Amino acid sequence: MKAMYPGSFDPITLGHLDVIRRAANMVDTLYVVVMRNPSKKYFFTTEERMKLVKESTRDIENVVVDMHDGLLVDYAKKMGINVVIRGLRAVTDFEFELQMANANRQLLPKLETVFFMTDEKYSFISSTLVREVATLGGDISQWVPKPVIIAFKDKIRRD
Q1: Mean pLDDT of 52-78
Q2: 105 is catalytic
Q3: Among this protein's residues, is 126 annotated catalytic?
Q4: Catalytic residue of the set 49, 68, 86, 89
Q5: Which H helix or E strand runs over 29?
Q6: Mean pLDDT score of the chain, rounded to an integer?
Q7: pLDDT in tens, 100-132
Q8: Which of 51, 78, 127, 141 is catalytic?
Q9: Which of the two residues, 105 and 93, has the higher pLDDT score?
Q10: Which entry of 39, 40, 157, 158 is annotated as an active-site residue?
Q11: Span 37-50, pLDDT tens digits
Q12: Which of 25, 36, 23, 122 is nearest to 71 (CA)?
């Protein structure tokens, strides 16, 4: 069975990795799909985000990192995937995720969404929080994998 875990991963966090590891244990192949949305402003480029996800998941054998810039259902059709993995940190995430799951099923009826509750120790972590703390010089080491720490230091030093 194949499944996909889509997200912007700007940057990937330990919460994302928690969901990736658990989902990868349940499927033959897990596609971690770095999504591009032209209306969004990202801190890291698509290529940087893909590199960080690859570096952070390289020890998980059945993970494939890919990129997509269209509708999620189009990627699912192209790759023959019928399962979308989504992580929920809190009840507040559920309403948006439910809307997306229902919209996706309207567009592709065989596409099922499976929700994973993020481990409680990661439930407050968001990529937005990580970006804000990192750009203000704070310590993000307890929230992200090492490649992300290095990438932030390099990017902030360059800017």
Answers
A1: 97
A2: no
A3: no
A4: 89
A5: strand 29-35
A6: 95
A7: 999 999 999 999 999 999 999 999 999 999 999
A8: 127
A9: 105
A10: 40
A11: 888 899 999 999 99
A12: 36
* Dihedral, 8, 156, 89, 6 alpha carbons, nearest 10: 10
State phi, psi for 83 to the nearest 5 degrees.
-130, 130
Question: DSSP alpha helices (H): ranges in 80-145?
Answer: 91-107, 127-135
Q: Is 16 a catalytic residue?
A: yes
Domains of the chain listed by start with CATH number: 2-158 (3.40.50.620)
Active-site pick, 16, 49, 68, 86 = 16
Name the token pair of 117.
């509750």
The conformational region for residue 105 under phi > 0 = left, psi -120 to 50 = alpha, else beta, is alpha
Give yes or no: 39 in active site.
Answer: no
Q: What is the total residue count of the chain? A: 159
